[in-house]
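Hey, can you fold this?
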Amino acid sequence: MVAHQGHDFSVDWWALGILIYEMLIGVTPFFNKERKILLVKIKNSKVVFPDKRRYKIDYSEDFVDLVLKLLNKEQNQRLGTKGDAEEVLKHPFFSSLNIDDVLNKRMEPPLKIDFNHSMDGQVDTRFFNSKTSEKDLMET
């Protein structure tokens, strides 16, 4: 998409890699405020994972492997392009996930947020990035 050469469904697996990275790390892997630099980084830069100790972020080798495979710049080599969702879900990162329970809505979510409950008169934002404001949450 960045090269304006068209794309296929493999871009969806790329987007999943970006989403998973951002959900755990807190920023996108190629973040830059300047659009031109962002696009250059997407095309040319390797995915960098922050120092665990310095930034107090815990992530596994399975997480790193999954993200690198989803963000493979060679779209025909990207995880998911040969075996679709089944290929992705076979990755060790998802080994503790019971897919049958998810599909049949028997899984308890690991995190439940009550948006109607407020703490000290404010929306409960403890599970969100500290830069997120109450206004952002209400708009979402």
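Oh, and this one too while you're at it.
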Amino acid sequence: MRRQKRQPIRNKLDLTDRRQVRLMTKRLRLSESELARIVDRIGNSIPTITKEVALQRARPLTESTQIPASAAVAASAPPEPDILSESAP
């Protein structure tokens, strides 16, 4: 009698399966501990894990692009002409 091979659930991550963990860490460019921390926090759904990693990577970009309003105004103002270099003797 042949036993059927148990099919894995495709959209759930099994942290005990070394192949799945290795594939996800490569795909998401995370360490195993970072992946385990995310799974502990939000669950083992692969689409949810992928979405969370994308959100974490997007947060520093939006936070670092915030500049003070005075710096933005100064950067967008046209340069003032140099009066000393334009005067002829």
